[in-house]
């Protein structure tokens, strides 16, 4: 462990770590926040045990296996068991890039989960307001759902009273924390807390329990397992009516992105409190719909838009005057076939609700995606006269999904397919070859001399070399073939529909010839490497992905043992 920590510190990393020797210690350490888990050889802790512990706690922490070579472990086997990467101890230069890559992927997955939860709760609150929930029930529901979905220890809503007090009107979670505490918003000692400052300053305030300003409440907060708090003012047009306050069991919960997402809920709660103060259900309904983050508009039966809220203009870029009286076709992007619209209109004209995803186009010509629901509205005679459409912008969620999907199947450095996508391509090629009675070849390529380049020129130049190698390999194969990076300095190639051994040898020789040409790196000092290439052929050397890859790997080691810069067939 000391060697690994020393290596990371030499890379200018600030390292905080704990060591677990068994499952009990691991479970205790997992109560804290960690960026990555490194698993070395251990009789007590296996990959399966660590993955099981993470799943039991629903934790998304990357697991990287460190292989000391005593018990050989392939990258594919480690990934099958649930690890994200497997690194040999003599390849420490791979450790930091692998950790950084997996940490970025975990953050993207976390952002997507938070976005999904936030979108779901905001839509749920909109529906509750539209259904006419009384304000006390609505505020209690908001607190309870926020505590459940975001795993907060305590959520409460406080009303700003004329005498300087902040009176709790709804709460959920560890509500005993509030007993005996006087919260004020005026300039008194009791008003110097985070809630009072948020109301006076009309801005979000967050604080860790370790902050000196939190000292008066620290003992009580620690008793209930609270490590950070966020208070958000509730108000419209600079008139603050109270605060929404959230407590988390973790120190770093309330970063800028999270605060930005949670600010939308403060607007919902404000609408609820204003409605309670005014005691007018109609004004509440209009305030809710007008101030909702989701776009809402009402059309006549023929489609003409009669009413819309501000969010429709914000989404589309059209003004209220441009939209009023127009047909929703004004947002049409041309991305959906006519059958899509025919099905939608048939559904709603028959009095049924419709829900789906629609790609719209803004006035400026940009595309955005919404989750849209359409509900039929009837007059007092039971006649269908209007439709209510609610749109939720899910463009960011779609972008995150596409980015995560790409990272799941591609190497972030070279942008080549990774092992998962390579497996899929080979399995498809095997199925096609079985039907057509043709052959295919799998090549396993390992770089000779890459470690020396890394040591002499640095890891940045090593990454540049790997990118150049990836591009050179692409130049040696056809557009229908596949080049992939398994990790480190290991690449694979799928050659589809090969005619004979000679055609495979032609490609292999091209790879050897192009590999040894000097690489000009950032240091402007040429570097050289060579390839050791192992080749397996379907169906002679195997009829499955695992068999073909394993035998190409074995053939590659024969090529390396034979003097490097050469290729070797498994059949040899």
Characterise this structure.
The protein is 44% helix and 23% strand. The strands form 5 sheets. It has a 5-stranded antiparallel beta sheet, sandwiched between helices. With 572 residues, it is of the alpha+beta class. It has helices at residues 2-10, 23-29, 47-56, 75-81, 95-130, 135-150, 194-201, 215-223, 256-278, 281-291, 310-316, 320-323, 338-349, 395-409, 419-436, 450-457, 459-475, 501-515, 545-561; strands at residues 37-39, 63-67, 85-88, 154-160, 166-173, 205-208, 228-236, 239-248, 295-300, 305-308, 354-361, 367-378, 384-393, 439-448, 482-487, 490-498, 519-520, 526-527, 530-538, 566-569. Helix 5 packs antiparallel against helix 6 (135-150), helix 9 (256-278) packs antiparallel against helix 10 and helix 16 (450-457) crosses helix 17. It has 19 helices and 20 strands. The model is unreliable at 275-284 (pLDDT under 50).
